[in-house]
Design a protein that fits this description.
With 138 residues, the chain is α+β, with helices and mostly antiparallel strands. 19% of the residues lie in helices and 31% in strands. It contains two helices and seven strands. The chain has a four-stranded mixed beta sheet, sandwiched between helices. A three-stranded antiparallel beta sheet has the order 3-2-7, with no helix packed on it. β5 and β6 form a beta hairpin.
């Protein structure tokens, strides 16, 4: 069975996004890297419900307006295959963000992404989220 994971690009109007600095635990995927909040779907859970749950659990942020961005098959460095689905939404600038998982949470400007250690495929997906958000003004 292929793992299904979701990640959420919580965007500010300036194109910055909320990133999580992963823990440095042995065996943890993307340990020590900066990634958008997200995680693995539980059995029987829809991928959008997974995304909302993971964001809530990791940050206390309630995103009722998630928008689908992209879904694709990927392979971890150890050869394990998974289906990754990415969503995005606007940060409402009202709700507090609380770090419940990882070392830290931070809104990072896209122009600063190169100074953060992250999986190589994420900047391209971040650009997709910014492009999608440029089409929606809500």
């Amino acid at each position: 069975m292929v793992d299904c994971v979701s990640a959420i690009w919580l965007l500010r109007r300036d194109g910055s996004t909320l990133l999580q600095h992963r823990d440095e635990k042995p065996g943890l995927r993307h340990a020590g890297m900066w990634v958008p909040p997200g995680g693995q779907a539980e059995p029987g859970e829809s991928i959008i419900d997974c995304a909302q749950r993971e964001l809530q659990e990791e940050t206390e942020y309630n995103a009722a307006d998630l928008r689908f961005l992209i879904s694709h098959d990927r392979t971890y460095e150890d050869g394990v295959e998974y289906k990754a689905t990415y969503f995005w939404c606007w940060y409402d600038e009202i709700q507090s963000i609380v770090c419940h998982e990882g070392q830290a949470l931070a809104f990072v400007r896209r122009s600063d992404a190169a100074t953060y250690l992250m999986p190589s495929h994420l900047p391209e997906i971040w650009d997709m989220a910014i492009a999608a958000s440029d089409k929606i003004s809500d």
